[in-house]
Amino acid sequence: MKNVFFVLCLFWGLLGASQSVLPEVQRAKVVDELLKERLDSLLPVLMDRAGIDMWVLISREYNEDPVLKTMLPATWLNARRRTILLFYRDAAKGSMDKLAVARYNIGESITSAWDKEQQPDQWSRLMDLISERNPTKIGLNYSQDHNIADGLDKTDYDLFMEYLPSKYRSRVVSAEDLAVSWIETRTEREMVLMSHLVEITHNIIAEAFSTAVITPGVTATSEVEWWMREKVTAMGLETWFHPTVDIQRSADQLEGHLYSFSDRPEGMVILPGDLLHCDFGITYLRLNTDCQQLAYVLRPGETEAPEFLRKALADGNRVQDLLTGNMKDGQTGNAILATALDQGRKEGLKPAIYTHPLGTYGHSAGTTIGMWDSQNGIKTKDGSAYPLHPNTVYAIELNTTVALPEWKRDIRIMLEEAGFFGVDGFRYVNGRQTELYLIPR
Fold first, then answer.
1. Residue 8's pLDDT band (boundaries 50, 70, 90)?
2. Are 280 and 207 within 8 A, CB to CB?
3. Distances in Å between the alpha carbon of 296 and those of 28, 273, 393, 412?
4. Rg over CA atoms, the chain
5. Does 170 score more than 60 pLDDT?
6. What domains sit in the chain, N to C, each tagged with a CATH number?
7. 205 Cβ partners below 8 Å, 6+ apart?
8. How far apart are CA 118 and CA 114, in angstroms?
9. Residue 80: pLDDT above 80?
10. N or C: which end of the chain has fewer CB within 10 A?
11. What burial class does residue 132 get, using C-beta atoms within 10 Å of its C-beta: 0-12 exposed, 13-18 middle, 19+ buried?
């Protein structure tokens, strides 16, 4: 624990000083400590909540179950051959078996339970382990509604069911709720790190939206995008999607060419009077960020953005408030979406909400609150949507359409910030944008 504390302190100090990131060896220590804490302390709680006492995850090399992949130690970049994990929770005894039907231990927490020389057949050994424990429910990762919880391929499913003794076949259930909760739930230590990841993200955007990168009349949007990509690479980080930068400007400047975000012109030269928007996220320590912010390019003689643009941003912030104010434990994403949209429209706003879970993956598993092309809610096989749980993180992603007589057109205020929902309610992980970046400033 002392080593981990030292590493975290070093990590925080480096961030504060120069936004440097940890060397690979120290990243691995942090990743493995976080994983051990999750497997030892978090997983039993989630299995009890899901009502599943045995969870079996099966993957083959380079075709990994996205849930199993998050359980591999830092030095395992992929599964090996066929990797089988078995977790058995005996709530009455307060015990938890974390086993690998593999020839070797998988990290510090998952113990090898297969001697190939004693039992050559891997599947038969798995069935022995199941029979010895006599589980009530055997969870497998298949799901119609959650892609991340649907990682068991047909070949392995068929082989599992072929080997499984008939008395246990009726006990096989989808582990989708357990898989989703594993992916979505954040520990306290992960949230400390998440805050710093979002801070790095914000700082890169702030630098990108400055004269250190942008020379109005010269710099094109694509150049800013690639600068952001190169900045991330130079810091030893990764992006999980290519950054985008786009421009909204007056109809006169666009010569009547009104466009939507989906078919925005690329490589536009940035000019004074432009409203810039970016979409950007990073990956680090097995966590992800996703952020959209705005900047205004000052015209000669201006010292601040026009009041109508500042008011438009305030409208976007208001939609954020309506959304996050409706985030309650146990509420479904569809219910939150419907209420927030109705409240916004009654206030004269034109909102669209497409907020998604964030953390282990960028577009992660959990409570989805709308999609850009599904503003009436998400359809699922049973007609309901996955409910909100505490200790989860979301990309608070949305927009509001604002009519600008000054520009003779409508614009969209597109915002996205990482937000945490906990037992005490909602908070932004590292603040949110309430003022436009100014270029220059």
1. very low
2. no
3. 40, 7, 29, 14
4. 24
5. yes
6. 37-182 (3.40.350.10), 186-439 (3.90.230.10)
7. 228, 278, 280, 291, 293, 437
8. 8
9. no
10. N
11. exposed
